[in-house]
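Hello, quick one for you while I still have it in my head. Could you read through the record and tell me how the tokens relate to the sequence? No rush at all, and the record is pasted right below.
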Amino acid sequence: PNHAAELTAGYYNLDDRDGYRTIARMLKRHHASLNFTCAEMRDSEQSSEAKSAPEELVQQVLSAGWREGLDVACENALGRYDATGYNTILRNARPKGVNKSGPPEHKLHGFTYLRLSDELLQGQNYVTFQTFVKRMHANQ
């Protein structure tokens, strides 16, 4: 609850202060992009002992980047081949959905798919991955 890992890393991110927005401002000054991990992770899949909220964290970081006008990208952290993980990535990629009359207000500038493996290329895993890729490119 006290954000000890963030404080240890040197930034102040508590309920009354968005530490990621400060980082996004610095990146903007240097004409950099923001890339963040764990786009496929869900709060409900984490141990309660870890007090981890990856969905909240990803949204906070991506939103900070978008508010500062950065190109924002992300990647998956875990090897997952299920529709639930892919759907979580899609929600992060375009949090306001697909805009049929033009580009979405917020979208990822890029996405890095990590953990390409033999398991991904087998049977239903590959079919599910193909569907995910098509959905990532919707309205592009």
Q: What stands out?
A: The mean pLDDT is 86. The radius of gyration is 16 Å. The beta strands are 34-36, 72-75, 110-112.
